[in-house]
């Protein structure tokens, strides 16, 4: 995806909302992964050197449990290890847990016995359990609770002898293992749990459990992370990383508009780039890594003109996702449901999509009034919303486009009171943990006014049934079948029109690499090559 | 001026300064009230924005309570007011950081480029404006007159952010001489200041030139010519002080506009100043930060205004008595 | 009062006034073009500007002079079509600031002084507040959009207009007829409509034109940071914002909106400049590129000129001759060609006091100034011979000598002193610069001279600013400074005219004793025959640029005058005395 303007970091990238943050990193299709060519030793050859790069914006907190923006997640990944990690091929692999066993009730984690906090405290099963209890405590108010644990209550029990931690869920949630790879589920060491406010501000050095500790921060200006010398428990990813980690990582927030220039001038070592900047970094000279942040798709609000499935079909007939792709970001990938290709259970069957037929559509749409609400971070200056307005207007509808900033837009689409003030929107997901529920939950289950998360208002019962079955599945393979069924049913009833993913392309100078793991950027993979 | 202050008792200075102090206080009170109110008028629920799109309804409620947004308005105002008088501007909704701290970090970045730009603009404008006025006095060098009118108007019509982008493209990206953004070292100040002052040089030079032309017509300049002092001395010693009054009055406005211009230019240079801070805070509905920054800019504006009035009075004591009703 | 005004007094302006100032004309032409684009472009180009095609992000080509954007829309057409919205928004914003600002600014005059003071005080703070920040907040409150942006920018400029209106209307409100009208209970609205507004119209118009350009840039700035015009609407600012995003990928995209915004801003600014120039009497009539303020030898035949130069040199070199001033064939010509001084001749001997009388506009001040080598702007002078204080003024003379030997005392002491500097600084300038006196010594000397001229508490006075002293005091101070430099020639241009009658006599007495002490010769310019008669050895009567009669003090005293103009002057003087 493109964000609205490279020159408006705070608009395009700086806002509090994680969504906006997502809007700021882009991908391009093109580049290759220079970094992972060969098998090199995954052993840590000792950290040295420094890597300087940009952040979307100021982190809202350094406490992973309270993380809510992309910058929070990026930095949480460095400072706090999660029990599980995502992997390109295996789906989920061990992190602080060496092994895990998923069941209907939840997941049992076997904690590795060679893990230590930044201050040398051993990370025992109790330490992990305490941290997960803190995360799942309703008083903590973890914003990512639902993504990590689903909708139910959580009970964490520990068996020190067996070295295991059991995470029990009161409501079934088959994506729990994927959820526990979420950077917001990073384990906070005991001293941090004693002083959560200190962790918020990043001022408890002993709280860090990951490869890096934050050693300096000037809000709005710079953050510095220093490698924890003894750290050597990198996840056993199926793609191996070359090079060695840097001794120091520095991050400058709010500079995504200038960071491509700064990489070109040598002031920075890596940066996400927009599609229109890709040509400035020839593939021969620069390292590329690509992935996605989330996905874009149209959601119809069935309380108004789109209560009729034929009307929704007509609208879908005029929306050309390839044209949308060209307008918003030519380097993005087309999607076939509510998630990008990096999400395990995403539907990829394009036969469920509606074929283009503007003429047929025009017959139905002619003279209808349609309220589009969209946000100006989708495409340059909100060109995504502008595209929708244009195609519907061409079909003869009276279109009213509200291309608002994120705050206003969220207020409209997420307030049940506003349900009658909009007919369709382009939804944009921020899916850091690669969850299928993230995105699908906007079109299945109870609507907002009934305490659910769906924007479609009319409950799609068939799809919802499949979705619930997916949540109750015992493992992810079983779940995927149901998830895809739910997606296909939502497509058949035309609650959504899939568009593209929200791409993230990262360029780094020669001698520096950073990877996307399972399609998601992971700053703990920043490496120097001598 | 020192002598003036010595004879303060019963002098117009006492009245003048007390008047200024009163104005300051009134302005501050108004500012506090306004900063509180405007923020409430901005549409969009801060709790929802802060909690993010994937937050559950419970979490949004939780956030609302955490941010004290569930309190009645009068109580919020009381908290704000008592906070201000105890030196506490509250904490950012978004990052929980002390607003004081945010302002303290960001203010110097904005002030340095605004101040740097105004110094550059004024020195440049005075030299340029007086030179042109001198060279074109009495219909001399009509070509220069016309060229200056057109060139300055054209260059002034360009928005600062266009200058910013062009400067970056040339001096950072193409030539690699200066940093492309951020505020990492001393060199990073050059381009923002240049971008901010470039248009201002010409807009102020036009005024300096006009004022100089007027001053040169004055009888006292004839007197100075009668003393047969060098042209440079005539201009610097006899004309310049008389330009200062109008130029300084103007500088208050220009400085205000520089701060405004900084808001835009900061986004071009990813500059960690107040401008970027307030735009971000508006989008985040981060009430305390919006209030803190607007309040800071406001206090700055009031102080600048007052300081200029005082300097003006020192420069030209006539304003002490004349400018009672309006300044 | 000034030379320039005298030069302008020539009755040649009526015709020229009708013609537009060239800068104004240029501005109007540019603005007309922009307005026409605003009117017609949306009719002719909206198809290519607004309809999507598959020629996305195209470079410059014959079909697309400025390329296309991501929707495949023609950027050239978009830059033109954006003109209408941009202009409408800018006009709306300007209208808001002008109407509200002027309304508040005039209405405050009908409020109790306390309320007025409060409003004006609050306004002065509002003025200091950055416009863009005010606009930002308003735009945030009302939600981003084209018209809210116009409203926001318009409101943000209101304080500036309030301040200007208050400042401009305050002298008007103080005028008698407004006060009278108020006393006669003429309705407030009539008062504003009839008296206040018409008097402010011109400066307001100028300000509005310049403000238009500022508003244009501010609106675009708001669009640039995303709080202004929102797609699918577009103005220059939004196009620029899009273009700058792509500046490295598609640098040509910036051309269209940049050229248009500069064109519109330039047009408005030139109109403002032109209006200001037309309303300024100084620049109104001047159009020909002619260098003024010069003094040259008269273009006479070569041998004749040489002879005259010789005569001048003689006069200059021969102190025995005791000629301090010699003027031959002095001509002063205004920029428009009118001859203001028509070839006059006269001499002043050492220690002689010569009066030069005539009505205003007769050219006497021009003569005096030119004599001192200070030909005013707006006129040019030529002379066959011009000797002052023994120096040949047609050749380069060191400024040290001129400054030392020639002292000038001017008519209006209030305006001849630099208001920004202390008396000491100004009055010791010649002594310090040209006589090499150290500041402390010059200061001491000046104090002595002040004492000599009976100026009370001189130590205190010399540290004061001119506005703190009375006119008579200032004029004495000026005389003191010529004493300081020990001038040989004093040129006094109506030194007492601006003073009270009671003060006049005292100042004149001191003037005479000063000249006697210096042994200086004096050229005394006046229109007051009584004064001249009492003071001068010889009197030259000047009328319409010519010396019509030369009289001794005796002749004048016994009223033995010949020229009818002199007669008239005498009659007038006697009439005044009789009163």
From TrEMBL, chain A:
InterPro entries: SBP_5 (IPR039424), SBP_5_dom (IPR000914). The keyword Hydrolase does not apply. The keyword Transport applies. Residues 30-60 are annotated as: Disordered. It holds the Pfam family SBP_bac_5. One of its GO terms (molecular function) is peptide transmembrane transporter activity. Residues 1-23 form the signal peptide. Keywords: Signal, Transport. Residues 92-441 form the Solute-binding protein family domain. One of its GO terms (biological process) is peptide transport. SUPFAM superfamilies: Periplasmic binding protein-like II (SSF53850). Belongs to the bacterial solute-binding protein 5 family. This is ABC transporter substrate-binding protein. It comes from Nesterenkonia salmonea. The lineage of its organism: Bacteria, Bacillati, Actinomycetota, Actinomycetes, Micrococcales.
């Amino acid at each position: 995806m493109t964000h609205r303007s490279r020159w408006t970091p705070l608009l395009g990238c700086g806002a509090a909302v994680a969504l906006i943050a997502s809007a700021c990193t882009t991908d391009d299709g093109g580049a290759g992964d220079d970094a992972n060519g060969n098998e090199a030793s995954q052993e840590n050859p000792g950290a040295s050197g420094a890597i300087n790069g940009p952040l979307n914006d100021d982190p809202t907190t350094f406490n992973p449990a309270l993380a809510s923006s992309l910058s929070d997640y990026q930095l949480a990944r460095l400072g706090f290890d999660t029990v599980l990690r995502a992997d390109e091929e295996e789906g989920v692999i061990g992190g602080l847990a060496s092994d895990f066993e998923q069941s209907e009730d939840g997941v049992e984690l076997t904690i590795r016995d060679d893990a230590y906090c930044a201050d040398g405290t051993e990370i025992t099963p109790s330490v992990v359990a305490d941290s997960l209890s803190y995360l799942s405590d309703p008083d903590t108010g973890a914003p990512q609770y639902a993504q990590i644990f689903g909708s139910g209550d959580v009970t964490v029990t520990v068996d020190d002898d067996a070295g295991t931690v059991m995470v029990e869920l009161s409501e079934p949630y088959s994506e729990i293992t994927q959820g526990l790879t979420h950077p917001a589920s990073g384990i906070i060491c005991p001293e941090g749990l004693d002083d959560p406010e200190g962790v918020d501000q990043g001022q408890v050095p002993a709280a860090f459990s990951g490869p890096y500790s934050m050693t300096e921060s000037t809000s709005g200006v710079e953050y510095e992370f220093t490698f924890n010398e003894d750290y050597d428990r990198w996840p056993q990813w199926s793609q191996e990383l070359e090079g060695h980690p840097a001794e120091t990582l520095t991050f400058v927030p709010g500079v995504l508009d200038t960071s491509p220039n700064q990489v070109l001038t040598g002031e920075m070592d890596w940066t996400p780039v927009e599609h229109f900047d890709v040509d400035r970094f020839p593939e021969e000279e620069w390292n590329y890594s690509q992935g996605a942040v989330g996905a874009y798709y149209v959601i119809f609000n069935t309380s108004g003109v789109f209560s009729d499935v034929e009307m929704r079909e007509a609208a879908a007939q005029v929306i050309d996702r390839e044209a949308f792709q060209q307008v918003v970001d030519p380097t993005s990938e087309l999607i076939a449901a509510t998630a990008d290709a990096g999400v395990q259970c995403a539907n990829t069957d394009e036969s469920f999509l509606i074929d283009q037929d503007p003429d047929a559509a025009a017959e139905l749409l002619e003279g209808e009034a349609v309220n589009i609400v969209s946000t100006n971070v989708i495409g340059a200056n909100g060109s995504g919303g502008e595209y929708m307005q244009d195609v519907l207007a061409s079909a003869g509808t009276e279109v009213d486009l509200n291309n608002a900033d994120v705050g206003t837009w969220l207020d409209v689409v997420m307030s049940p009171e506003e349900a009658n003030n909009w007919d369709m929107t382009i939804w944009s997901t921020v899916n850091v943990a690669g969850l299928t529920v993230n995105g699908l939950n906007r079109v299945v289950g109870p609507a907002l006014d009934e305490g659910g998360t769906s924007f479609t208002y009319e409950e799609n019962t068939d799809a919802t049934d499949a979705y619930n079955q997916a949540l109750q599945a015992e493992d992810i393979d079983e779940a995927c079948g149901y998830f895809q069924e739910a997606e296909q049913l939502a497509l058949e009833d035309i609650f959504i029109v899939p568009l593209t993913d929200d791409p993230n392309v990262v360029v780094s100078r020669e001698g520096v690499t950073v990877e996307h793991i399972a399609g998601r950027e992971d700053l703990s993979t920043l490496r120097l090559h001598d | 001026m020192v002598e003036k202050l010595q004879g303060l008792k019963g002098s117009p200075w006492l009245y003048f300064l007390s008047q200024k102090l009163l104005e300051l206080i009134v302005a501050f009170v108004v500012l506090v009230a306004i900063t509180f109110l405007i923020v409430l008028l901005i549409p969009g629920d801060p709790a929802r924005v802060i909690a993010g799109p994937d937050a559950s309804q419970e979490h949004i409620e939780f956030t609302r309570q955490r941010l004290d947004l569930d309190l009645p308005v009068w109580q919020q105002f009381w908290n704000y007011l008592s906070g201000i008088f105890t030196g506490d501007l509250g904490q950012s909704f978004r990052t929980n950081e002390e607003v004081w701290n945010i302002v303290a970090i960001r203010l110097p970045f904005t002030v340095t480029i605004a101040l740097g730009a105004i110094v550059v603009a004024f020195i440049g404008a005075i030299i340029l404006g007086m030179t042109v006025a001198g060279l074109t006095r009495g219909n001399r060098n009509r070509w220069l007159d016309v060229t200056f009118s057109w060139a300055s108007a054209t260059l002034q019509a360009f928005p600062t952010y266009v200058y910013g982008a062009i400067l970056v493209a040339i001096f950072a990206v193409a030539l690699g001489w200066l940093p492309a953004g951020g505020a990492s070292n001393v060199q990073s100040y050059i381009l923002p200041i240049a971008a901010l002052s470039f248009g201002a040089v010409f807009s102020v030079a036009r005024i300096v030139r006009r004022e100089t032309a007027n001053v040169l017509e004055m009888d006292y300049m004839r007197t100075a010519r009668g003393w047969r002092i060098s042209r440079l001395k005539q201009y610097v010693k006899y004309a310049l002080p008389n330009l200062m009054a109008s130029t300084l009055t103007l500088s208050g406005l220009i400085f205000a506009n520089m701060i405004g211009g900084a808001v835009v230019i900061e986004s071009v240079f990813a500059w960690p100043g107040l401008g970027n801070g307030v735009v971000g805070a508006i989008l985040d509905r981060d009430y305390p930060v919006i209030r803190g920054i607007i309040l800071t800019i406001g206090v700055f504006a009031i102080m600048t205004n007052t300081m200029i009035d005082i300097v003006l009075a020192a420069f030209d004591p006539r304003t002490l008595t004349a400018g009672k009703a309006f300044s | 009062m000034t030379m320039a005004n005298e030069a302008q007094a020539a009755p040649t302006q009526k015709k020229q006034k009708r013609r537009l100032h060239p800068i104004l004309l240029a501005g109007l032409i540019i603005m007309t073009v922009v307005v026409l684009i605003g009117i017609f472009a949306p009719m002719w180009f909206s198809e290519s500007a607004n309809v999507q095609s598959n020629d996305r992000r195209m470079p410059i080509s014959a079909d697309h002079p400025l390329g296309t954007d991501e929707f495949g829309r023609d950027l050239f057409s978009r830059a033109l079509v954006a003109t209408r919205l941009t202009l409408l928004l800018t006009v709306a914003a300007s209208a808001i600031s002008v109407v509200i600002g002027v309304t508040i600014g005039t209405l405050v005059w009908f409020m109790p002084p306390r309320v007025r003071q409060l409003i004006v005080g609050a306004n002065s703070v509002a003025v200091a507040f950055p416009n863009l920040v005010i606009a930002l907040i308003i735009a945030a409150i009302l939600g981003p959009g084209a018209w809210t942006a116009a409203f926001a920018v318009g409101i943000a400029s209101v304080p500036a207009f309030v301040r200007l209106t208050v400042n401009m209307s305050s002298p008007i409100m103080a005028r008698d007829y407004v006060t009278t009208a108020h006393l006669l209970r003429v309705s407030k609205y009539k008062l504003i409509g009839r008296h206040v507004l018409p008097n402010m119209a011109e400066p307001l118009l100028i300000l509005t034109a310049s403000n238009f350009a500022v508003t244009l840039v501010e609106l675009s700035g708001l669009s640039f940071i995303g709080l202004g015009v929102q797609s699918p609407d577009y103005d220059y600012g939004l196009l620029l914002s899009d273009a700058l995003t792509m500046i490295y990928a598609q640098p040509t995209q910036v051309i269209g909106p940049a050229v248009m915004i500069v064109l519109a801003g330039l047009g408005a600014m030139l109109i403002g400049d032109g209006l200001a120039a037309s309303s300024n009497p100084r620049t109104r009539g001047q159009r020909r590129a002619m260098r003024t303020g010069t003094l040259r030898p008269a273009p006479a035949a070569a041998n004749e000129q040489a002879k005259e130069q010789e005569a001048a040199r003689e006069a200059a070199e021969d102190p025995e001759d005791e000629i301090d001033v010699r003027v031959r064939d002095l001509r002063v010509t205004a920029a428009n060609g009118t001859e203001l001084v028509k070839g006059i001749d006269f001499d002043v001997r050492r220690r002689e006091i010569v009066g030069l009388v005539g009505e205003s506009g007769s050219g006497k001040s021009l003569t005096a100034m030119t004599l001192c080598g200070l030909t005013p702007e707006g006129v040019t002078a030529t002379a066959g011979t011009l000797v002052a204080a023994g120096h040949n003024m047609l050749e380069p003379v060191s400024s040290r000598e001129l400054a030392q030997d020639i002292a000038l005392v001017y008519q209006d002491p209030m305006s001849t002193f630099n208001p920004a500097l202390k008396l000491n600084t100004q009055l010791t300038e010649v002594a310090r610069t040209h006589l090499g006196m150290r500041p402390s010594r010059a200061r001491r000397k000046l104090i002595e001279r002040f004492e000599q001229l009976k100026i009370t508490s001189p130590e205190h006075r010399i540290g004061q600013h001119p506005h703190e002293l009375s006119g008579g005091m200032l004029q004495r101070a000026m005389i003191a400074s010529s004493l300081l430099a020990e001038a040989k020639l004093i040129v006094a241009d109506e030194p007492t005219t601006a003073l009270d009658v009671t003060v006049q006599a005292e100042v004149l007495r001191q003037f005479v004793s000063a000249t006697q002490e210096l042994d200086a010769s004096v050229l005394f310019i006046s229109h007051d025959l009584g004064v001249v008669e009492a003071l001068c050895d010889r009197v030259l009567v000047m009328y319409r640029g010519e010396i019509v009669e030369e009289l001794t003090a005796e002749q004048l005293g016994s009223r033995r005058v010949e020229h009818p103009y002199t007669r008239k002057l005498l009659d007038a003087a006697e009439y005044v005395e009789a009163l």
